[in-house]
Amino acid sequence: MSIGGYRLLKNINKIFISQTIRKASTKAEVNFQKRIFSGIQPTGGVHLGNYLGAILNWVKIQNEHSNITLSIVDLHSITLPQESEILKKRILEMTATLLACGIDPDKSTLFLQSTVPQHTQLCWQLSCLTTMARLAHLPQYKEKSEKLKDIPLGLFIYPVLQAADILVHKATHVPVGEDQAQQIQLAQHLAKIFNTKYGTTFPIPHAIIADDTSSRIRNLRNPTKKMSKSEPDPKSRIQLSDTSDAILEKVKKAVTDFTSEVYYDAENRPGVSNLMVIHSMLTGLSMEEIYQDANSKKLDTGKYKLVVAEAVANHLAPIREKINNYLSRPQYIYDILEEGRIHATEVAQKTLDEVNLKVGTILNTENNFVVS
Ligand code: AQP
Questions:
Q1: Which atom of ligand 1 is nearest to the CA of 38?
Q2: What is the 3-state secondary structure (H, E, C) of 182-208?
Q3: Fewer CB atoms inside 10 A, N or C side of the chain?
Q4: Residues marked as catalytic
């Protein structure tokens, strides 16, 4: 990443992240060690929304604040149909991409969700503490189920699995994009219910959502929607593995509006504003600098798109090279995931033992077989 880009991100996120962490650790988490957890689905290639809204924050937290536990959440991705061979390939690509973006396995734990079955075991315990009515209200379920005739049960309960992902690691903070806010609220709710019923067991996890536009990068073809991996139109997103030609093609086709001037107005001009956000995040230029530059050069939105495409292509070229380099060493990727599995299992099993003991689904040696 360019120095300018880092500087800008620092300005945007530094105060927010450190304030959030400081504020939270003086409240309910006082007895809990600070732990940061997040996840990403291997449903497709990583796009600029994931990168600017989530991954850059993860790398920043890892390098400046604390280690982070990251899960490639394959069990979430199968809530909608996946081809097994493609899924396996995507898991490898996702791991390679996270490493290429700066996730450092010496500092952080990177693992595949399905290899730590304690996640699904805690999911069952938690699913017994929530109601169908609560889950039916969650926006992502509503959005995704609308398009389906038969709704898989997994799609309905996946926010509970997400809560289990967070709670099984006793995470105090969860850095995510804006789309995840309500799911994190469910995790908070379940932690509170469990703690009230069985005694304090879980910290109440706090979402870390950047309070800037990066938390919602928009779909290039329909800027009223967020950029997403599962959107059928590949032109709707820029993937980190896209070539410079593919980036140029996609940015040129990005939907803007009939005003030719380049200025930021997220509400009325979401298309061009989204391009300006991406441009600003990747170069470190402020909105004002971008506006002044475009106007002094008399760039209309068509010409401005070429400037954005070049900035994106320049930023992503070295990352793409690193992704390909990691992909040429699949054994290295498996080793990283195995190391992550061992570490994540240690933490998760400890939590699960505590939960089982409190719920009564396991007996400790002292009360084994004792009938009073
Ligand atoms: N457009 C976005 N802008 C900012 N942040 C985003 N995130 C996702 N989209 C944007 C954040 O990226 C992290 C990983 O989320 P994900 O794996 O759920 O990614 P996705 O692109 O949202 O994937 P899908 O498969 O398309 O899922 P759905 O359809 O559920 O959105 C998260 O922290 C997320 O907030």
A1: 33
A2: HHHHHHHHHHHHHHHHHCCCCCCCEEE
A3: C
A4: 144, 226, 229
